[in-house]
From TrEMBL:
The gene is smpB. Its main location: cytoplasm. It comes from Candidatus Doudnabacteria bacterium RIFCSPLOWO2_02_FULL_48_13. This is SsrA-binding protein. It is found in: Cytoplasm. The lineage of its organism: Bacteria, Candidatus Doudnaibacteriota. It comes from the Bacteria.
Length: 149
């Protein structure tokens, strides 16, 4: 399982309470582009339309070795492959106050491209400051350990 893209902003802005794996419907050139690492999940989110989960605003550029495709839109909406039970769970969680469904990672699993979805609650400003402080403290500890060795 190789990670193709990570949504660092999603981990920073939300406290993730539950994760879920979903398939994603991509065109052939989009799969090649994703496997070469040209994907950005920054600012993307998941919405429910009818009985389908849809990934919105994920940027998958045109594969660099393919011919120009007229009318191709890199940030088009892409359908997520989930079963009915998972979709109904997403609907229930997303309707709760302050909950959101966001893509956390795009990765390859047995040749297929999958998306790790996170169901989380938005962080407040003071929570974000605490996360930054913890990360800086961990870096200082790691540096101190490396310098002593």
């Amino acid at each position: 399982m190789s990670v193709l893209a990570k949504n660092k902003e999603g981990y920073f802005n939300y406290t993730i309470e539950h994760t879920l794996e979903a398939g994603i419907v991509l065109a052939g050139h989009e799969v090649k582009s994703a496997k070469t690492g040209g994907v950005s999940l920054k600012g993307s989110h998941v919405t429910i339309r009818g009985n389908e989960a849809v990934l919105i605003n994920a940027h998958i550029p045109l594969y660099k070795h393919s011919a120009a495709i007229p009318g191709y839109e890199p940030t088009r909406s892409r359908k997520l492959l989930l079963n009915k039970k998972e979709i109904s769970g997403l609907i229930g969680k997303s309707k709760e106050q302050g909950m959101a469904v966001i893509p956390l990672e795009l990765y390859e699993k047995r040749g297929l491209v999958k998306v790790k979805l996170g169901i989380g609650r938005g962080k407040k400003k003071y929570d974000k400051r605490a996360s930054i402080k913890k990360r800086e403290d961990d870096r200082k500890i790691a540096r101190a350990i490396r310098s002593k060795i």
